[in-house]
Amino acid sequence: MKTLASTLLIPSLLTLSGCGSLQPGPTETDGVCVAVTYGSDRLADVHVRLHGSATGPVLAQAISSTDGIARFDPMPSPQPDEYFVSLCSLSDGGWILDAKYLKPDVSGLKLKPLAEGDVHSIRLPRGAVRSLTPINHR
User: Fold this and answer.
1) Continuous H helices in 56-115
2) Could you report the per-residue pLDDT of 94-121, keeping only the tens digit for each?
């Protein structure tokens, strides 16, 4: 598996998608979930928060596990027409998310209502994740 540091050196996208995983354990049929990836790496310890409006309170939240999957339980009922998403990295892991993703009114991230087995994706521009390790140029 590529290291996150090498992934930062090539153009990448952060993608949120369904729960499929190569690892044994919960799958997309095990609830509402979102896989958090950057390039080809899944990211653990990302706090994913869903808001009903750009300035509204958190309606549902989950933290991505070591497989990069955030599992939501429970989901609000009824769900809004769309969710405004905010993200936060919870451990340094050598990287950090850009601070603009902390607020749903600035992040630009939105998801349609989620149901078991749904697959959603959000693409962030390059630079959404930055390394905390300085790169030495010789």
Assistant:
1) 104-107
2) 888 999 999 999 999 888 898 777 656 6
